Amino acid sequence: MADSIAKVMGAGARELRIDAGATLEEVARAAQRYGLRWTSGRVGDFEAGRTAPALPMFLAAAAALGEVVGRQVSLAELVTGRGRVQITSEFSLERSQLRRALTGESFKFPMPLTSSIFETAHAIINKEAVTASWPPALRAVSPEFRLSVLKDFRESDARMCKNLGVDQVLGATAMAALWGHPFTVERDKRAGPNANAQRRGQISRRLKEDLEKVLNDGDY
Question: Where does the source fall among the domains of life (predicted)?
């Protein structure tokens, strides 16, 4: 079960405060100087994750904590430990990913696994979906493997499936069979970091042809 971002950030703030030997009241006074109308009780609510998450509040809280502990405190420092963080109802990140996002490090955001995709994938895992018409190479892909690829889908992967005229589960299975990861990962890998739009488009067309071939006859 993923923790809310308010709970994660609050717990991290509490760890910093306790490590510095600071009191709730000291944090509250500092927070007031940064525009937060906090009392010691309100600081306790923040640390317990009982406040509505908002970027201005997190920034002001980090500034107040920095004043109390005597050094600059980044938002990434408020994300401690391991496990997942619930960002929205359909989107969660590993804490390590959230820390990277907060420090400005570039990384691939996973595509949320929506309820419709999950239901279809769940049906396949439980062998409720008919896969007999699939080419042998696609039937050979394990349900767990195809779901792991589906979980890493980005918008471009979903769009590629639509262009191919297949659902995302079948599309993910073809990608798993060909490359072991989504289309976008393979495209970016082949294009390289400095590729222009024309180069990426050329590679995308070739990869689409490969997908069409494996979807039609299973050869790759």
Answer: Bacteria
Sequence letter at residue 181: H
Task: Check: CB of residue 146 under 8 Å from CB of residue 176.
Answer: yes
CB atoms within 10 A of CB 67: 19
Match 């195809």 to its residue by tokens.
146
- The three-state secondary structure class of 187 is helix
Spatial distance between the Cα atoms of 89 and 216, rounded to a whole number of angstroms: 37
Per-residue pLDDT tens over the stretch 81-103: 989 999 888 788 889 989 988 98
pLDDT digits over 48-63, tens only? 999 999 999 999 999 9
CATH 3.30.420.10 fits 3-103, yes or no: no
Is the separation of the CB atoms in 7 and 83 below 8 Å? no
158 Cβ contact partners less than 8 Å away, ≥ 6 residues apart = 111, 168
**Dihedral through CA 110, CA 116, CA 121, CA 127, nearest 10?**
170
Which residues neighbour 105 within 8 Å (Cβ) at sequence distance 6 or greater? none
The widest CA-to-CA distance across the chain, in whole angstroms, is 69
Annotated domain spans of the chain: 3-103, 115-216
pTM for the whole structure: 0.54
Bridge partner residues of 92 (DSSP)? 86
CA 139 to chain centre: 28
DSSP state of 141: S
